[in-house]
Specification:
This protein has one domain: MFS general substrate transporter like domains (Growth Hormone, Chain: A, Up-down Bundle), CATH 1.20.1250.20. The chain is mostly helical and 506 residues long. It contains 23 helices and no strands. It is found in: Membrane.
Length: 506
């Protein structure tokens, strides 16, 4: 059996077939051979995978939950009286939303470079403490300009969050394992959307305590919580399998081998070489990365729209401010369930395209159309459920799809940072399209969201066919050069995406 055929066999194997006979035969290291034999068992493999999940995913989940809570709580503070106390006009409030993205989008990719240099264990907890301090400071803002400056700083520190967590987890899991893990910590965003309303409703009861307004308490309490959790997560984050104290020696050997089956994927303690021009060129200037940015806009424009304005939208559906905080929670809880299910299926069937475009064009578009086509408040609220699920559930697959295309760790760090940073620019659009004069149907905002979804879906469709064509070319090349098939695929890892054994994930 050719090496290419064996590789394809692995890509479609069940867990119990994760180690093939040919792969066992070529292992020269007796310790590695023993580790492979131990973990070729389905139950042993799953126990190890669960062990890694329990030590890698929770810290990302906690921190991303808090990051999304802290960037979106300004929407809760608004309906709790922040605009009136600070004398903000509707335009100034929109500017306060927008300036966050000026730094957030700009520093995503550079933040991943710093993460690669300092290591996740130092960088991720450090930036959590910093943005928590900024949020706490927002509770003491007394005017528009102070709020503006703090939002700029918040965008700077939070720029290291989602791209950093995505890159961190991409170095611990193979391509077909990644989306469900990204979905787990990204689902924290949906929970944050739900919890923020409930938490804001509870915190608002402190209004006037120690002479501090209820909206200010929202920032103070949530900022202090982030600082505390950030300090704790230092003990929960592990740079690489080699340095992970929770893994035994044979587990480390096997997991490194497991990651290398993606043809060179996986960061190591020794893999701290600098970012060379080929890394930068492939990660920042490759047109494929920017195509995935457009796909990302199809998700982020509606996602941030609802993050900022769902409490306000629900207020215009007839509920008073305190009740609107609570009623914004159910759509997010539903979106969390759909996000988990969508990403689980994506990993199970090892497909990305269908689980990006599917939710966007069904839940997303249908939800917005329903809420635009009626004035019935209950039906419009139902449309919010569909639209929220349609915009949140594709995002983990969108990020994983891009990350899966780059086996080199440095290139992947830049590509993920570029995609998430520039896709987040959709939040700038979101800051202006839900205008008060358009209430309660918000036809302009929902129409723009539908347009972004259609654009993202069209680009995703093009990428699906393009990447399939590239895989077919590689397969044909290997068939025409049988002498290459007898060589170790690891010899070609330095070629990155040009590696003939590396296939783009579809």
């Amino acid at each position: 059996m050719s090496l290419q055929a064996e590789t394809e066999k692995f890509e479609h194997a069940e867990i119990e077939d994760v180690i093939s006979d040919d792969e066992k035969a070529i292992v020269d290291n007796p310790e590695l051979a023993a580790a492979i034999k131990k973990f070729e068992n389905k139950k042993a493999y799953r126990r190890l995978l669960l062990k890694i999940d329990l030590n890698i995913v929770p810290a990302c989940t906690l921190l991303y939950f808090l990051s999304f809570l802290d960037r979106g709580n300004i929407g809760n503070a608004k309906i709790a009286g922040m605009n009136q106390d600070l004398g903000l006009s509707d335009h100034e409030y929109s500017v306060a939303l927008t300036v966050f993205f000026a730094t957030y989008c700009t520093f995503e990719a550079p933040a991943n470079v710093v993460l690669k240099i300092l290591g996740p264990k130092i960088w991720l907890p450090m930036i959590a403490v910093c943005w928590g301090a900024v949020v706490l400071g927002m509770g003491f803002a007394t005017n528009y300009h102070q709020l503006l400056a703090l939002r700029i700083m918040l965008g700077f520190f939070e720029s290291a969050t989602f791209s950093g967590f995505s890159y961190y987890t991409s170095n611990w899991y193979r391509g077909h394992e990644l989306s469900s893990r990204v979905a787990f910590f990204f689902s924290a965003a949906t929970i944050a959307g739900a919890f923020s309303g409930i938490l804001a409703w509870a915190i608002m009861k402190l209004d006037g305590t120690h002479g501090i307004a209820g909206w200010a308490w929202i920032f103070i309490i949530e900022g202090a919580l982030t600082i505390g959790v950030g300090l704790i997560t230092y003990f929960m984050i592990h740079n690489t399998p080699e340095s992970a104290g929770f893994m035994k020696p044979d587990e480390k050997l096997f997991w490194r081998h497991h990651l290398q089956l993606d043809h060179g994927k996986g960061d190591t303690e020794e893999d701290n070489s600098g970012f060379t021009w080929p890394h930068i060129k492939e990660g920042a200037l490759n047109w494929r990365v920017w195509a995935f940015v457009l796909v990302g806009w199809g998700v982020t424009v509606p996602l941030y729209s609802f993050s900022f304005f769902l409490p306000t939208i629900i207020t215009h559906l007839g509920w008073e401010n305190s009740t609107a905080q609570l009623m914004s929670a159910p759509p997010y809880i539903w979106a969390c369930v759909v996000t988990f299910f969508n990403s689980y299926l994506s990993d199970k069937y090892r497909k990305r395209y269908e689980f990006v475009v599917g939710p966007l064009m069904t839940f997303g578009v249908i939800g917005f159309v329903i809420s635009m086509a009626t004035t019935n408040l209950k039906v419009m609220y139902f449309g919010c459920f569909l639209a929220t699920a349609g915009q949140y559930s594709p995002w983990p697959n969108t990020v994983s799809w891009n990350a899966n295309q780059y086996p080199n760790a440095q290139t992947r760090a830049i590509a993920v940072g570029i995609q998430i940073g520039m896709s987040s620019a959709g939040g700038v659009i979101s800051s202006y399209i839900f205008r008060p004069q358009d209430a309660p149907r918000y036809l302009l905002g929902k129409g723009v969201c539908i347009g972004a979804i259609v654009l993202g879906s069209l680009v995703a469709t093009f990428m699906r066919f393009y990447l399939k064509r590239q895989n077919d070319k590689k397969k044909q090349y290997l068939e025409e050069h049988p002498e290459i098939q007898d060589r170790d695929p690891k010899e070609f890892t330095s070629l990155g995406t040009k590696n003939p054994f590396f296939n783009y994930q579809l």
